[in-house]
Amino acid sequence: MSLLKKFLSYLIIYFFNSFPIKKNKVFLFSYYGSQYGCNPKYITEYMLQHNNSKFDVVWAFNDPEAYNLDPRIRKVKVMSIKYFYELCTSKIIITNFRTTDLFVKRKKQYYIQTWHSSMRLKQIEKDAEETLPEHYVKMAKRDSKQCDLLLSGCENSTDIFRRAYWYNGEIFKHGTPRNDLLFGGRSGSDLVKQNLNLSDNTKVLFYAPTFRRKNDTSVYDLDYQQLRQSLTQRFGGEWTILVKFHPHLLSLKGERMGEGVINVTDYSDIQELLFISDALITDYSSLMFDYAITKRPCFLYVPDLEEYMRKDRKLYFNVVELPFVKAASNHELAKRIEKFNEKHYQEELILFLDEIGSYEQGQASEQVVKQMEEICFSEKRGEIYEAI
User: Fold this and answer.
1) Distances (CA, A) of 362 to 85, 164, 176, 180, 304
2) pTM tops 0.85, yes or no
3) Which domain does 317 fall in, by range?
4) CA separation for the pair 222, 183 (Å, rounded)
5) Is the pLDDT of residue 249 over 80?
6) Spatial distance between the Cα atoms of 118 and 116, rounded to a whole number of angstroms
């Protein structure tokens, strides 16, 4: 952004920051306006389902016209005049990533930071400060000072946030809103499958690898057809594989995958893909921790494990010790699937979830919205907050 544009943005911000705050207005965005998803989406869905018109809900997008949402959601374009007006006059601001310096928080505003994972494998923030760009660290420190509430999915994450987030405020220990979906059984999965042109009885394997430094794609060498055969032999049924590459690898979104394999890199809500999946394959993505809630099979395909642990960002866990099934080659993966022991796997998962102190109970969105109601509509809470 040019200095002139930034200067003009600040003039607009300070002008609108003189306008009254609307006490029931909630302003949300996910990954800087690039999607309708993650925790802000599930908080919104709960608000609309249970609170009807109590909240005035505003979402910011880079391309608002790309989203056909509930008419009760007002959409604005990121960096437009209307965007700044709505942001500056909202009582509550909710996002899942760091805010930039173009968010100048007002005294009576309340900023909820949901973060974008229930737990991390790779080290974050202060723990990884030496590997992060200087401008990001500066932005993160500023953002932490403005934050009023930080959501946590487990005791392990709370400990990390306390140490590494540059934040000393309230940590909300009620789980991760986007994971509430994973507690609903399979009811509603047919609607998601319809969006992907899948039949109701299709079994789904979801492959969601993370990115590598220099965007190396050589490790994404799964033998999809062998994999489908192995899954059918072990679990029965006809399997379709959904493949979603990391946003850093959008160049692969149009890549053809072969029979029974669908590239869903463009699908915005990854939680819905976890929801309909009968099994997951990932590598170093924190999705494994979300998916653990379902107790369904999760395999880690890690042909570059030693190199990754040596060269990439430091990890909070030794991958070898995680309860998920590991494989370093297509041949080994086929064998692991063939010999998959569901009883042993679920026992290991239960021990792991207990060890990390999971808060997940499927009620995170409800608890967050209750907190929002207190902030917006409880006179006593409002007086206490405004006095801070």
Assistant:
1) 34, 26, 8, 4, 35
2) yes
3) 187-356
4) 30
5) no
6) 7
